[in-house]
Write a structure and sequence with these properties.
Layout: H1 10-15, E1 57-61, H2 66-77, E2 81-86, H3 90-101, E3 107-111, H4 117-131, E4 136-139, H5 155-165, H6 167-176, E5 185-189, H7 193-196, H8 202-222, E6 228-234, H9 240-245, H10 248-251, H11 270-277, E7 288-291
Parallel strand pairs: 1-2, 1-4, 2-3, 4-5, 5-6, 6-7
């Protein structure tokens, strides 16, 4: 059963009518969730945890909002404490801390710039100081800067996109790996654009393709250590990244190109991350799971 969408009627679900959003735009990435209308849905009240992650500790980059927030809440429901790394979105991060605490788990917010390798070391150090262990690493940070032509992608944009989307995959993994034990899980956020392409997002799609290769290669390297490495490839999801990267006009019809004729909500991603983090997926590594509203992809 879906939580009740403020803009998503029973008639719309049954008749597969397009679901649209009010036009809106924010000028700074990765965006602020508390300013979005309607607010993304991070928590599914019908999801009841069963202790799948009891006593575990997870680090989630980009955990203040969007998919990261939904994953933090889902992990908390399953018994995990979480650390959320974020850039500047303090109000969103505080809201995530409060949401996690509702389920009796602890949430440590850490602000900083993941493009700086030392910040990854700081995150790991503070996680160990607070919780004494690391079991799950969710690499979820990202930016995107749509451009009509590759000729408009400046060297600065290219460096910003790759340094944000790809470099922290290496920085965070290198910092956390010495403390991961057999049974630990690394989960990255890829994208449908890695498979289907996106004409406005040539550099972003390229980084997501790199994340797929990162996932496959790292899984082979770490399998003998008993550490599983997987990824999730979302389709269009209603998050702050959308309103901070696209025009207000584009936002109006965001997600309607999927077979389901709507964007996904963050809570609809959380169970996939829970599955990959838990022993339910003990025979799964090097894989990318697609949650995209029905878009067919080559895997």
């Amino acid at each position: 059963m879906y939580p009740k969408y403020p803009y998503y009627s029973y008639e719309t679900k049954c008749e597969n009518k397009p679901v649209t959003f009010p036009p809106q735009h924010q000028d700074r990435q990765p965006g602020l969730e508390y300013l979005m209308v309607p607010a993304p849905i991070s928590d599914n009240p019908d999801y009841v945890g069963s202790g799948k992650l009891q006593g575990k500790v997870a680090i989630i980059t980009g955990g203040d909002s969007g998919i990261g927030r939904a994953v933090a809440i889902g992990f908390a429901k399953e018994g995990a404490d979480v650390v959320i790394a974020y850039l500047y979105e303090h109000e969103d991060a505080n809201a995530t801390v409060e949401m996690v605490s509702r389920y009796g788990r602890r949430c440590l917010p850490i602000a900083g710039d993941l493009r700086d390798e030392e910040f990854s070391n700081e995150i790991v150090r503070k996680t160990l100081e607070s919780f004494g262990r690391i079991d799950i690493l969710v690499l979820n940070q990202g930016v995107q800067f749509p451009q009509e032509s590759i000729l408009n992608i400046s060297t600065q944009q290219l460096e910003d996109t790759f340094r944000t989307n790809i470099f922290p995959m290496f920085f965070m993994t290198k910092a956390a790996l010495p403390y991961l034990q057999p049974g630990s899980s690394i989960i990255s956020t890829a994208s449908v654009t890695a498979y289907a392409g996106a004409p406005l997002l040539v550099d972003y799609s390229s980084t997501k393709g790199a994340i797929v290769s990162f996932t496959r290669s790292l899984s082979l390297q770490l399998v003998k250590q008993g550490i599983r490495v997987n990824a999730v490839a979302p389709g269009p999801i209603w998050t702050p990244l959308i309103v901070s990267s696209y025009s207000a006009e584009y936002v109006k019809t965001f997600g309607t190109e999927t077979p389901m004729k709507r964007a996904g909500q963050p809570f609809e991603l959380a169970p996939t991350y829970i599955y990959l983090a838990s022993d339910d997926s003990s025979f799964v590594t090097g894989q990318v799971l697609h949650v995209n509203g029905g878009v067919m992809t080559e895997t």
